[in-house]
Amino acid sequence: MKRSNSYQLSVISCQLRKIVGLAICLMTVAFSGIATANFRAGGYYKNFSTFFNSPVSKVPMSGIVVNRLRLNLLYTPTDTLSFAFAYDFTPRIQDPLLFVGAGSPSPYAVSTPSSSYRIADFDSPIYPSAEDPVGSVGIYHNLDRASVQFSTDFADIFVGRDAIAWGSARVVNPTDVVAPYTYDQLDTEDRVGVDAVRMRIPVGVMGEVDTGYISGANFDFDESAVFLRTQLNAAETDLSLLLLEFQRDLLVGLDVARGIGGAGFWLETAYVFTEPFDDAQDASEDYLRTSVGLDYSFGGETYVFVEYHFNGAGARDPENYLTNIEQPAYTRGSVYLLGRHYLAPGGTHQPTPLISVSGQILLNLSDLSTWVAPQVAYNIAEDIHLSVGGFVSIGKRPKNGESPEFQSEFGSYPNFFFFSFRVYF
User: Fold this and answer.
1) DSSP label at 60?
2) How, if at all, do strands 370-381 and 384-394 pair?
3) Using CA atoms, how far apart are residues 117 and 166, in angstroms rounded to an integer?
4) Whole-number pLDDT of residue 134
């Protein structure tokens, strides 16, 4: 009698966890005696076990087990020079239907970090190759950091692969289009590294000028980005202006953050001109995105926030969601929300120092569909964490047919539930 696929997956998952656990032990022992003032090594192992329930009828529940092992190295031979390196090794076990070909993992919530802003990159996955049949196992890897930083009295200069991100909004960052995370991304601890040359010049006590070049594949300028960002503090308000040319589009951004009474306030907005330097520019494809919100902390144990987001690139009616994603905002601008008006409240409460309960809601105000994200986290020890949670979609489900038709945004998304285990070393 043949064993079931679920049993085989559980056996493979168990073996992979043993291998990863052994690797963690070996690296912990290897690095325990070599951390010095000039050299630091660390990292983590994370496991995300996720189960998906499709909104389309007659599609069975599927699951993904992602194991991520990351090594971080930092070497500072002098006070003015440092080198950073980070490498991810990620075995994945999942339903073969969730592999898109042999390359891109799906869904995005537990995908392997990657970016189009890289001169060159490793072939990933390691397994299976393009010639191999698609099965239940994929092994990915990612060189996520490889940079050198040189500091002078005038400026800090970065060259290589590092993280670049902007914005003060809590849920959707309109100015963060280089390597953003979506609302349902589970692992957001480390931003995806991009290849860049960057210079940060301090101005006054809390101000700076930040400028640089972010390269696309093979130094293709049409796939690259150039930015100039200024930041200053005036009247107890942090102000930031951003000019970003990316893939021939031009983004003009403003970020404002300050305290109002005991609450925090932020306004982050960006207007994107699509191909403004092209004589055949279609101004109808230009778009505005804005996030504005407030947050408040009650005695350090309870934190709440609310944010409104306007997505000028989105469609007004659900039946136009799928056709609208052909616009430049989605193909080049990292926009992923399909509607136009959103409300996102959320909060965290710590009943004990070791346990936190959190929840967020993303509400599409046009079609009244909702994505609810509860989570409970438990800190077993100083470097060991557990969490369990999910993303529950509420809204009208797609109409059945040869190609399902959206009746709401989040009602068309799958429900998924996850268990996470993290160990830092």
Assistant:
1) P
2) antiparallel
3) 16
4) 72
CA separation for the pair 89, 143 (Å, rounded): 9
Q: How many residues does the chain have?
A: 425
Residue holding tokens 């930031």?
A: 240
Residue 419, both tokens: 């268990």
Q: Tell me which residue has tokens 């640089």.
A: 212
Backbone angles phi, psi at 237, to 5 degrees: -130, 130
Question: Tokens standing for 122?
Answer: 């490793």
Cβ-Cβ contacts under 8 Å for 414 (sequence gap 6 or more): 52, 53, 54, 55, 107, 393
Predicted pLDDT at 280 = 72
pTM of the model: 0.86
Please name the residue that has the structure tokens 């940060």: 200
Distance CA 8, CA 203 (A): 59
Q: What is the H or E stretch that residue 412 is in? A: none
b/e per residue 394-424 (b: at least 16 CB within 10 A): bbbbbeeeeeeebbbbbbbbbbbbbebbbbb
Q: Which helix (H) or strand (E) is 173 found in, with range? A: none
Amino acid at 78: T
Query: Hey, what domains does the chain have and what are their CATH numbers?
Result: 5-424 (2.40.160.10)
For residue 265, the SS3 value is strand
Cα–Cα nearest to 50, from 9, 8, 94: 94
E strand segments, 106-163: 137-151, 156-162
Return the amino acid letter for 70.
R
Give CA–CA dist 385/46, Å, rounded.
Answer: 9
Q: Which residues of the chain have pLDDT under 50?
A: 1-13, 15-20, 22-35, 101-107
Q: CB of 360 within 8 A of CB of 346? A: yes
Q: Which residue's entry shows tokens 């403004």?
A: 276
- 268 and 168 Cβ atoms separated by less than 8 Å: yes
